Amino acid sequence: MAGFRHHTATRGKHCREYPNRVAWYVMRRYVILLLLTLGLACGSVVAAPILHARLDGSINPASRDYVIRVIERAERESAPMAILQLDTPGGLESSMRDIIAAELASSIPIVVFVAPSGARAASAGTFVTMAADVAAMAPGTNIGAAHPISLTGSEGDDETASIKAENDSAAFARSLAEQRGRNVEWAEEAVRSSSSLSASEALEANVIDLVAADMGDLLFQLDGYQLPDGRTLTTVDVPIQEVPQTLRERLLGLLADPNVVYILLMIGIYGLIFEFFSPGIGFGLAAGGVCLLLALFGMQVLPVSLAGIGLVLFGAALMVLDGFTPTNGILTSGGVVALVAGSLMLFRVPDGSISLSWLTIAAVATVTGTLSIFVFSKGLLAQRARPSTGRSALVGRMAVVRRRLEPEGTVLVHGEYWSARLQDGQLPCGSFVRIVGMEGRTLLVERAEDDSDQEAQDGRRSR
């Protein structure tokens, strides 16, 4: 009985303590979850890095996609800022305007840093720099020369189009300078007069905001920098993450060069032509097909003229046909002219910094014309060469008399016995004759004045 009372008392004590233990466990879990959530939130805020992108080379659809991707990622991750390190001779206006639109619409500060020393922000790069929230340059760099270039001439309608393009670019430059509080007069002068400034001159003329020796110096000067809209930049203890280009962006950047695309196009065309005339080898099909597909991939990046492609293909076809027609090089000459004309109008790129080089066109036209002339000369030599097979190949050959010619008999030539008729007189067996013609299946022969040639020696040994 005493044991039962003790068990009942103990059970009652445990029942009274159980709600307190449950409440303690639940409270402890909530506290741990709260601390973890606060820690992750604080860690995410501190860990958001400054994104750093490098744009080296022309401004084209590949570099446009790269810069816009970096800006969108910076906005998505709430980065303190995005720094675009720039070194460009210029590029396509359409790609430039897309980059500028992304800069102006960005909710985070965009810093454009023209670096390292020796770099430049020319032509389209000038506009990209002026559109940034903070424009900085390294010593030894320059900015400007933003006059639009036309490759179509300067007369008539082309002159009117050039003036329109210049006015449009000047107005765009003024609007960017006004929006960012920079030198409006110089912005227009950079377009109309191709004015260019060094880093120190640009800073003095209120074209840029900072001159920094390197990335570390730039971050030091940006710490505490106040933007015109009231935002203050912070760079102390903030990590920097460089965003590399993807494989597709690097490949597109390489194929954005008209010279590379042009060479790949020509290799692809002549590779397929080689495979067509030499079937079964496979090298021409593999190499030509790959080069042609890469060229077509690059043509998606660059503005291409269909008339230029047609002239290039027509010129290649003319040079190939010259090897099969007796035109004495006329088709080859026309093919070279068509090839050069098509090459000049193949790419409709208004910026000379990424245009097709005259040297590339001359090299391709010279190599192509030389190969065509080589094939043409070999064809002429083959036509003029002495036949080596058939009955016509027997004319002019030496033969050995096997049955006395009176004047008809039998001769041995090329290991074969032929009926022969001597044109004048008679000849005994073992004599040497020269074949001068054929009459049906009978060889017309004449007495050989000199039997010292190789065929005569072969006939004497066979006897």
What does this structure look like?
The protein is an alpha/beta fold and 463 residues long. It has 4 domains: 1-47; 50-248, 2-enoyl-CoA Hydratase, Chain A, domain 1; 257-384, no CATH class; 391-462, OB fold (Dihydrolipoamide Acetyltransferase, E2P). Helices cover 52% and strands 15% of the residues. It has 15 helices and 14 strands. It has helices spanning 2-47, 61-76, 93-105, 124-130, 157-180, 184-192, 199-204, 215-222, 247-255, 258-277, 283-299, 306-321, 330-344, 358-384, 454-462; strands at residues 50-56, 82-87, 110-114, 120-122, 134-137, 142-144, 196-198, 210-211, 240-242, 398-403, 408-413, 416-422, 432-439, 442-447. Strands 8-5-3-2-1-9 form a 6-stranded parallel beta sheet. The chain has a 5-stranded mixed beta barrel with strand order 10-11-12-14-13. α5 (157-180) runs antiparallel to α6 (184-192). It is elongated, with a radius of gyration of 42 Å. Residues 6-10, 42-46, 150-157 and 452-463 have low confidence and may be disordered.
Concise summary:
The protein is α/β, with parallel strands linked by helices.
Major beta sheet, strand line-up: 8-5-3-2-1-9
The fraction of residues assigned to DSSP E strands is: 5-15%
The CATH homologous superfamily name of the largest domain equals 2-enoyl-CoA Hydratase, Chain A, domain 1
Tell me the distance between the termini. 145 Å
The topology string of helices and strands comes to HEHEHEEHEEHHEHEHEHHHHHHEEEEEH
The residue-averaged pLDDT reads: 80
* Net shape: elongated
- How many structural domains does the protein architecture include? 4
Structural class: alpha/beta
Main sheet makeup? 6 strands, parallel
Radius of gyration: 42 Å
CATH class wording of the largest domain: Alpha Beta
